[in-house]
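Q: Could you fold this chain for me?
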Amino acid sequence: MSPAVWIALLAVFLLLLAGRRRARNLRRRDRRRRKESRLSMNEMIRQLLGKRCVVCLDGGFGGSLTGVLEALEDNWLSVRTGKNGALELVNLDYVNRIQELPEKKK
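A: Sure. Below is the predicted structure, expressed as structure tokens.
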């Protein structure tokens, strides 16, 4: 092989290596941003603890949960649902939105 081919292969290899490093740095930055936004989301959710809410979920399963928000720890939200009081744990990465339901008037 001629030196020109070796130089071209080396250049392609270096470009691929630089692209991987850039992608890794972007993932790290996104992870930091997600963590920062999660902290502010946690503060907002703490205001809704003990109230009846609808938690809209994102992801493969989709759907929503209706119940009383009980606890918030790390990245997990516990929701007491239904008449039998089943407890469900939801990862905040899959929460799209939370809506407080009005109290029923008697």
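A (continued): Residues 3-100 form a domain with the SH3 type barrels. fold (CATH 2.30.30.100).
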